[in-house]
Design a protein that fits this description.
By secondary structure, the protein is α+β, with helices and mostly antiparallel strands. It has 2 domains: 30-230 and 458-479, D-Maltodextrin-Binding Protein, domain 2 (3-Layer(aba) Sandwich); 258-452, Dipeptide-binding Protein, Domain 3 (Dipeptide-binding Protein, domain 3), CATH 3.10.105.10. The protein contains 13 helices and 21 strands. It has helices spanning 50-59, 106-117, 126-130, 136-142, 168-171, 278-290, 307-310, 336-347, 349-354, 367-371, 390-393, 410-420, 425-442; strands at residues 30-34, 64-67, 70-73, 76-82, 87-92, 149-153, 156-160, 191-197, 200-205, 219-223, 231-232, 242-244, 256-268, 325-332, 357-364, 377-383, 445-457, 461-462, 465-467, 471-473, 478-479. A hairpin with a 2-residue loop joins strand 6 and strand 7. Helix 12 (410-420) runs antiparallel to helix 13 (425-442). The protein is globular and about 75 Å long. The chain starts with 29 loop residues before the first strand and ends with a strand.
């Protein structure tokens, strides 16, 4: 789990051709849609950036499908959860077919997951989304071992997890879990790819998709050109579940704001002598708050289900700084949100000095450079991969690879172990609230902004569906 906005695509997958179907020709119009970049990698196991993942999501369906702030059944019509969330059994729909008319069976999912977890595949999202499956971590590291996935028959997939989680149905909505390109021109999603050339992709309706009647466009033409486009799709590039920097930029004229679950954080290096004490960190938090940067910024973005319950409400006690704190601040220039925060801090240097905070500004170019730059303060966000605050709170356990603050509290870790095994949403959110308040009082990180994306369309174009996890739906788009 470690990519950023602006990631380079890593491979070229040549896909072309038409799927077999005897269905009548569609009558709906072609839609021209503008993407921030044209995907070169449409293999759902290998795609990294959001435009590629979203197009792969239209070509290859999984067991479930992102829908608003949750998921809906897709190729699986239902699923059962047993042993307090440890065993999940998915029941596939009857008569599922690939676009080339071959059957889709439960074994396709097992083969796809083994392929994604095989280290030779190089699937960047396999660990974050399938690592909870029993045996997956070993298989992902070595390419060997048993995986807790079994096709009981053509329509039944049984999955055993390493430990119970409430949201495995959300994890299997991600494209990395979908059966990928087993054969050229075989697609399982709402659309099939018919051509790719000159910087554009052309998708047509897949009449073998189980819910083909819900697919409104007959053809989608995807390119980076906004000239004559029916709609300009969201500009975000970073997939969920990863360190995050904001690259979307300000709202274009006439665009509609789309909430995301990303939170920009100012991390405080708790192992550095200047910030080792809790009071020193609270002083920094108080000084930043006095500039108006954090007063209305929640730790958990409002788009996250349960955020109103989870977000802390107890004020932290800030005392005057006894001696000046001389601190370094690092951020990536590609992080537009972080750059705005840094500029605001620099513009208020005098006030910060009055409050005992002296900053040395150290911008770097990229996220990878930022992660290797030692600093007292680091601007770096997070985009959750599930519809729950747990994934943001999971940055802070002692052993987390993404705990930039290097903060460690065994009691916090114990609460996290309790939260992940609590299946009831309300009960879990109350546990997460206590964890968020512990973070608020310890101040290993300060929320400084939440992420947004943008979408615009010509008048009369309807049916675009957005999920704040970063995935959108094109199958319902039509001209009214």
């Amino acid at each position: 789990m470690g990519k950023a906005r602006g990631l380079a695509l890593v491979a070229v997958l040549a896909l072309a051709g038409c799927g077999g179907s005897s269905a009548p020709a569609p009558t709906n119009a072609t839609l021209h849609l503008a993407l921030p970049l044209v995907p070169r990698e449409l293999d759902p196991a290998k795609a990294t950036d959001l435009p590629s993942l979203n197009v792969a999501h239209e070509l290859y369906s999984g067991l479930t499908r992102y829908s608003g702030t949750g998921v809906a059944p897709d190729l699986a019509e239902s699923w059962d959860v047993a042993e307090n969330g440890l065993v999940w059994t998915f029941h596939l729909r009857k008569g599922l077919r690939w676009s080339d008319d071959s059957p889709i069976v439960a074994g396709d999912f097992r083969r796809a997951w083994l392929r994604a977890l095989d280290p030779k595949t190089g699937a960047p999202y396999a660990g974050p989304y399938l690592g909870i499956v029993r045996g997956a971590r070993r298989y992902h590291a070595t390419g060997n071992g048993q995986l807790g996935v079994q096709a009981l028959d053509d329509r039944t997939l049984r999955v055993v997890l390493q430990h119970p989680v409430p949201w495995f149905d959300e994890l299997v909505a991600h494209p990395v879990t979908a059966p990928g390109p087993q054969r050229p021109s075989a697609y399982s999603g709402p659309f099939r790819l018919v051509s790719r050339n000159r910087g554009r992709l052309v998708l047509e309706r897949n009449f073998n998709y189980w819910d083909a009647k819900a697919v409104k466009p007959s053809r989608l033409v995807l390119s980076t050109s906004t000239s004559g486009a029916d709609a300009v799709l969201p500009r975000g590039l970073a997939g969920p579940g990863l360190p995050w920097v904001e690259t979307v930029g300000p709202r274009p004229p006439g665009a509609r704001g789309l909430p995301t679950m990303a939170t920009g954080l100012l991390w405080l290096a708790t192992r550095n002598p200047e910030l080792a004490s809790r009071q020193a960190r609270l002083n920094v938090a108080g000084a930043v708050s006095n500039l108006g940067l954090t007063r209305k910024v929640p730790l958990v973005a409002p788009a996250v289900p349960g955020a109103a319950v989870v977000n802390p409400r107890v004020p932290a006690i800030v005392e005057p700084v006894a001696t000046p704190l001389r601190l370094t601040l690092a951020w990536a220039r590609q992080d537009l949100g972080g750059s705005r925060v840094a500029a605001r801090l620099r513009a208020n240097d005098a006030q910060l000095r009055q409050e005992g905070i002296v900053l040395d500004y150290r911008p770097v170019q990229t996220l990878s450079e930022l992660l290797s730059t030692p600093a007292d303060l680091t601007l770096l966000g997070w985009s959750p991969k599930i519809f729950d605050a747990y994934n943001l709170l999971d940055l802070f356990p002692c052993g987390s690879a993404f705990n930039v603050a290097r903060w460690c509290d065994p009691a916090y870790d114990a609460g996290m172990r309790q939260a992940v095994r609590t299946l009831d949403d309300q009960d879990r959110w109350r546990i997460e609230h206590r964890l968020a308040e512990r973070l608020h009082q310890a101040s290993p990180a300060i929320p400084v902004y939440t992420g947004q994306d943008w979408y615009s369309a010509k008048p009369g174009l309807t049916g675009f569906s957005w999920s704040p996890i970063g995935f959108y739906e094109l199958m319902g788009m039509t001209r009214s």
